[in-house]
Amino acid sequence: MRVLITGGAGFIGSHLCRKLLEYGNSVICVDNFITGSKDNVSDLLENKEFKLIEHDIADELYIDGQLDWVMHFASLASPRYYLKHPIHTLKSGLLGTHNCLGLAKEKRAKFFLASTSEVYGDPLEHPQSEQYWGNVNSIGVRSCYDESKRGAEAFTYAYKKMHDLDVRVVRIFNTYGPNMQKDDGRVVSNFINQVLEGEDITIYGKGEQTRSFCYIDDLIAGIIKMMVADYSLPLNLGNPTELKVIGLAQMVKVLIKSKSKIKFLPLPEDDPQRRCPDITKAKKHLKWTPKVPLKKGLIRTIEYFKSK
Ligand code: UDP
After folding, report:
1. Atom 1 of ligand 1: nearest residue by CA position
2. Which residues are catalytic?
3. 168 and 302 together in one domain
């Protein structure tokens, strides 16, 4: 197959490019390198089945020849970046999705949208199942990300309805692993790098808020299963093991055997208090469950950041 991946040089995109090449496909990676990095795909540049295009998907994209899958990952997905670049975030989520849908329609390709647990906002239901409609502040600081992904989902299902496009939508919960950017501000990369550099660990609020962390290899396996499954409604992918942020800090400290102190900082505005996926549908429709325990995944991620 010939697959186009936007955000292909980003954290998740780069792992997906590698896996699809391994399976014998041709991959076109599109990235504007705002948060993606050439380093993430530098080892693929020699592969004649891999093509890298520098392009901002908020602008239209024309590709010669057939495409079988169009997979839209491009986004400023970390709160640090989307809070800094709200307009760009809205453009990649909304205009970028529209452009990818247009391309998929033109090629009669299967379209994949990388959606997010943020569509549930600061959820009032727990754990979050796909049926939950969410609790999002439409003009809050996180709305550029949350609402652009909600809009992207709406765009996707409008194309399915009007143009009979074959679509897949995955709501991705917190994911971590190698190829995360060191300075992207997310909790796993922050804690590991703070500890490795002997700095204080920054906990926002009291650290009582929860997240559940999925290792990248598990997520990639789920995404590929979703592409080949006969299921076109939104589907949660994430690890349902819920943990307090302070618990994560303690775990990282123990794994690196560090004496870093914990520094408490103000909780960011609209920071979701609890997040945990209900993955009943993924289990049923994809026969997928995450396999990598947090400790094992953290050790691999620590090794990655050490090697950088
Ligand atoms: N967080 C923290 N310290 C940090 C970075 C993040 O306590 O240095 C908290 C943040 O407030 C949030 C959680 O960790 O409650 C996860 O944040 P992240 O930026 O990784 O992603 P989110 O799940 O909020 O999109």
Report:
1. 187
2. 145
3. no
Quick one: pLDDT at residue 276? 97
Ligand 1 atom 17, closest CA = 187
Percent of the chain with pLDDT over 90: 99
Helical H segments across the chain, by residue range: 11-22, 79-84, 86-90, 96-107, 143-163, 187-196, 216-228, 245-256, 280-281, 294-307
Strand partners, 12: none
Give the tens place of pLDDT for each residue, 213-253.
999 999 999 999 999 999 999 999 999 999 999 999 999 99
Both 121 and 225 in one domain: the answer is yes
- The answer to whether residue 29 is domain-embedded is yes
Same domain assignment for residues 44 and 59: yes
Edge-to-edge strands, sheet with 110-116: 50-54, 26-31, 2-6, 69-72, 110-116, 167-172, 235-237
Question: What residues flank ligand 1, with Cβ below 6 Å?
Answer: 79, 174, 185-187, 190, 202-204, 209, 211, 245, 268, 271
Statement to judge: residues 134 and 200 lie in one domain: no
Q: Verify that 63 and 106 share a domain, yes or no.
A: yes
Give CA 231 to chain center in angstroms.
Answer: 20
93 and 142 part of one domain: yes
Residue 107, both tokens: 């090629």
Question: Could you say which residues of the chain have pLDDT below 70?
Answer: none
Determine the structural domain holding residue 31 and report its residue range: 2-177+214-240+276-291
Nearest atom, ligand 1, residue 275 CA: 23
What pTM did the predictor assign? 0.97
Number of domains in the chain: 2
pLDDT of residue 271: 93
Residues 150, 94: Cα–Cα separation, whole Å: 9
Query: What are 123's two structure tokens?
Result: 């959820």
85 within a domain of the structure (yes/no) = yes
Structure tokens at 134: 């969410």
Residues 108 and 10 in one domain: yes
In this structure, are 201 and 224 located in the same domain? no
Secondary structure (3-state) at 168: strand
For residue 86, the model assigns a pLDDT of: 97
Distance of CA 116 from the midpoint of ligand 1 (Å):
15
